Amino acid sequence: MKTIQKYLKAILPIMLMVSVLSACSKPGANTANDVQALNKQFIDAWNSKDSEKIVGFLADDVHFLQGKTHYTGKAEVSQKWVRETLPTLSDLKTYTVSSTIDDKTAYEAGIYSVDVLPDSPQEPRGVGAGNFILLWKKTADDSWKLSYAQLEGMPVIAKR
Asked: What is the span of the domain harbouring residue 46?
C-alpha cells in the first residue's frame, strides 16, 4: 500500500501539470509541425518546378533577400526569384533549426542545400548551401502566404 501511495504522490504533480497545460491548449492549435508542413508544400512545389504554385504561395507585399539582392512585391519576386532561378536549381532540401507559429505569423529557419544546374552540358553541376528563413503571414481569407524569404548562401562548389 505504501508503494502505491509513493507512486501516486510522485505522479500526481505530473498529472496535474498535464491537465493544466492541456486545458490551456485550444483544440487544433497551431504547432511548429504546421509551419513545417507549409514549408514542405512550398519546397515540393519548388522541386517539381511548379512556378504557378510557388507564386500562389507569395503574399502581394512579399520581400526576398539574398546577399545584397532585395526584391519587393509579388510581381518582382515572382519574376526575378522564382521564374529566373527555378530552371537553374534542383533537389532543394531544407533542414529546420527553429520554427514557430501563432495565429497570424509562422516562420521556419535553418540551413538548405540545392543542386545548381550547369549552363552547358560540358560544365559540372554545382552544390549550393546556406541559411534560410521563411516568414509566413495569415491573410484575411485564412490562407498562409509567404511574406519574407531570406537566403544567405555560401559560394557554389562543383559537384563531383
From this structure: 30-158
Distance CA 118, CA 124 (A): 6
More confident residue, 78 or 26: 78
Any idea what DSSP says for residue 94?
E
As for how many domains the chain has, the answer is 1
Note whether 41 and 50 are within 8 A (CB): no
Q: Terminus-to-terminus CA distance in the chain, angstroms?
A: 68
State how far Cα 67 lies from the chain centre. 19
What b/e sequence results for 65-74 when a residue is b if at least 16 CB atoms lie within 10 Å of its CB, and e otherwise? bbeeeebeeb
What's the pLDDT at 31?
A: 57
CATH number at residue 105: 3.10.450.50
- Residue type present at position 117: L
More confident residue, 14 or 76: 76
153 pLDDT more than 50: yes
- Give residue-wise pLDDT tens across range 99-137: 988 999 999 999 999 999 988 888 889 999 999 999 999
Helix/strand/coil (H/E/C) assignment for every residue in 122-148: CCCCEEEEEEEEEEEEECCCCCEEEEE
